[in-house]
Amino acid sequence: MSYVGWILITGALVGISCGLIGVLLILRRMAMMADAISHTVLLGIVVAYLISASLQGMTMLIGALFAGLLTTWLVQWFESKGIHSDASIGVVFTTLFSIGVVLISTSVGNVHLDVNHALMGEISFIPWNVIELPIIGDIPLAVVMLTVVTLIVVLMIGLFYKEWKITTFDPALAVSLGIPVLLLHYVFMTMVSITTVAAFDAVGAIMVVAMLITPAAAANLWTDRLLVMFGLSAFFGAASSTIGYGIAIWLNTSISGSMAFATGLIFLISYLVAPLYGMISRLTRKRTVI
Fold first, then answer.
1. For the chain, is the Cβ count within 10 Å smaller at the N or the C terminus?
2. Per the UniProt record, which residue ranges are transmembrane (predicted)?
3. Would residue 60 count as lying in a domain?
């Protein structure tokens, strides 16, 4: 596989995994939770480094995962105490992220860990950090992690598709049917955390947020069918990575930033021409009724 090929595969895997998770985030009106987790994992990474003195290995993954789960638990706890969801997310997000920034500035020192890297990532370095697998050979570590995460996401959505659908659209019905709504909520937040952590180091927080929210929002303009929405969101996420790479090469700029920008382009096109909820189709239907 060529250098460019690994970058495109990495971007596509981020787009697919985040696109699938993003559908449930959008439909559950939890888009800002994605922004919160993608930033607060920085605290987990910094704490893991302070403990292990290494930026490699499972320690980083575990630290970031715990930070994501801590964010979810704190937001849920504040909500249970009567604080509005958006306020809970805002308080937890800004507090944990700022603690991570302070620790980077005061305790980490001169290692390759800084706020700019955390926000934008550096996907162009992905092909150089490889792991040797039996039979297959050398493969970038990020590709292996993202492949595993994508398979987990697809498996979890497939196995509990009915439960996700019912708890998303009618939580009260789910409770009456005996479906463990709260447990599924934490399982879902764990999936969000794992997906975010896997993509964080490669592409940075900005692209993670863009891939979690924008492809799903675009897909929501095209269809009301949940299964079709999953497919469209994953496709838009993967397409954004390819289009964004082309833009980055053309303008000689940030690859991750360009991929995030490409998600916005796809959303804009969808907003204009989507046959169900696109602006043009809505204006056409309005004129027909008149």
1. C
2. 6-27, 34-51, 57-75, 87-108, 139-161, 168-188, 194-214, 226-251, 257-277
3. yes
Q: How many structural domains does the chain have?
A: 1
Closest to 15 measured CA to CA, from 243, 235, 206, 219: 235
Q: Is residue 126 part of a domain?
A: no
Residues 6+ apart with CB under 8 A from 145: 61, 198
Place of tokens 């019912």: 166
Global pTM value: 0.86
Q: CA 240 to CA 212: how far, in whole Å?
A: 12
Residue 137 dihedral angles phi and psi, to the nearest 5°: 100, -155
Q: Given phi > 0 = left and psi -120 to 50 = alpha, else beta, which region is 252? A: left
Distance of CA 212 to the CA centre of its chain: 4
Q: Which pair of structure tokens corresponds to residue 14?
A: 């981020």
Q: How far is residue 91's CA from residue 118's CA, in Å, rounded to a whole number?
A: 20
In a domain, 266, yes or no: yes
Q: What is the residue range of 197's domain?
A: 3-112+139-280
